[in-house]
Amino acid sequence: MAASSMKDIKLRIKSVESTMQITKAMELVASSKLQRAKERAERTRPYFTTLHETLCDIAYANTDFSSPFVKAREVKKSCFVIVAGDRGLAGGYNSNVFKKAASEMEGKNVCVVPIGKKALEYCKSRGYEILSADFPLAEAMDTSECFALSRMLCKAYCEGKFDELYLVYTNFVSMLSQQPAALKVLPIRYEKSAAKDNVRALMQYAPSSEAVYNAIVPEYVGGLLYGAMAESIASEMGARRTAMDAASKNAGEMIEDLSLKYNRARQGAITQEITEIVAGAEA
Question: Which helix (H) or strand (E) holds 130?
Answer without folding.
Answer: strand 129-130
